[in-house]
Amino acid sequence: MNTKKNQRIFFLYWVLLAYIIAALVFWFITLNKQNREMSELKKESYAITSPKYQEKIAAIEDEKERKIKQYAGEGTTFLLVILAGAIFVYWAVRRQLKISQEQQNFMMAVTHELKTPIAIAKLNLETIQKRKLDEDQHQRLINNTLQETNRLNALCNNLLISSQIEAGGYRMEKQELDLSELLNSCVDDFTSRFPGRIFVNTSPGIIVKADPVLIQICINNLLDNALKYSPKETEVMAALSTSGGQAVLQVTDNGPGIDDKEKDKVFEKFYRLGNEATKRAKGTGLGLYLTRKILRRHRGSIRILNNPGGGSIFAVQLPAA
Ligand code: ADP
């Protein structure tokens, strides 16, 4: 429905632009014709025998040429102004349409992402309330509810922080941060939810000057993606080291990997790959966008490498303190 509406808008735009340019060309042709006719009339008004006939004819010809040049100059300026305006309007409308399309996709994704954990948690709690469960079942439901609440919490953080950062309203609190400790605690958190799947290899005491809340969001996004997009029986490795004054974090998985031509696009806002792994997993396409934004704010970087054993490596660099 939207594309049809957009097509109609652009069709109208092109028709209007063509009409304006056609009117301009018509104006130029008509003025030139009038100019020629006026010169002819003036020439006819002098008799060949009149004194200084040749000079008068030459003056009329001069005036005619001058007017042609004047019309051409005015016409070209007019055309350039119209074209510049048209390009600007085209660009602005396209940008606006893209933003509104993105917002629509986002609203759909977020509504689904917000409602699902709430529905699951509600169902789990109702089951605990209404049924007599053995200890094992009880624990399983509580764990599952906790997982869903964590997911909801992570999503809310991503949403809030990215809108705050974009609006320039987030004040970074940079401090000396023990990245090794933070990574270990994030991995511990995931280990309780995904036992036996995630491993960490970090040198102790790697310090960076950074905002702990933001860096934790980055680490969680990368670990969450690595677990989410790779098969359940595969492992994820988080390795932290230093190299050339930089703290280097690598999150390696054995998932489907990311095509070279998509490696940059996955960092765009709301961008999600169209493959099976992505369709099965839940997400909004906000995590990597926010992660790169945060890292750049810390003068750091992120890039995607191919895991030689299949899958991807997300490699982060942050200046060490
Ligand atoms: P989300 O996970 O919410 O979809 P992200 O911004 O974190 O959003 O990721 C964007 C897209 O990049 C994902 O939808 C997925 O297609 C792809 N992606 C991210 N991490 C991985 C990974 N480790 N392996 C394969 N694909 C990934």
What does this entry look like structurally?
The strands form 2 sheets. The chain has a 5-stranded mixed β-sheet, covered by helices on one side. A two-stranded antiparallel sheet has the order 1-3. It has 7 helices and 7 strands. The model has no long low-confidence stretch (mean pLDDT 91). The chain is of the alpha+beta class. Bound molecules: adenosine-5'-diphosphate. Adenosine-5'-diphosphate binds at residues 221, 225-226, 229, 253, 255-256, 258, 266, 271-273, 278, 283-289, 312. Residues 221, 225-226, 229, 253, 255-256, 258, 266, 271-273, 278, 283-289, 312 line the site of adenosine-5'-diphosphate (ADP).
Total number of beta strands: 7
User: What is bound: which ligands?
Assistant: adenosine-5'-diphosphate
**How far from one another are the termini?**
53 Å
Mean pLDDT, to the nearest integer, reads 91
| Discrete helix count | 7
Oligomer: single chain
Give helix % range.
Answer: 55-70%
- Strand-pairing-aware structural class: alpha+beta
Cα-atom radius of gyration: 33 Å
Q: Biggest β-sheet, characterized? A: 5 strands, mixed
Helix and strand element order: HHHEHEEHEEHHEE
Globally, the shape reads elongated
Side by side, the strands of the main sheet go 2-4-5-7-6
List the uncertain runs: none
Fraction of residues in β-strands: 5-15%
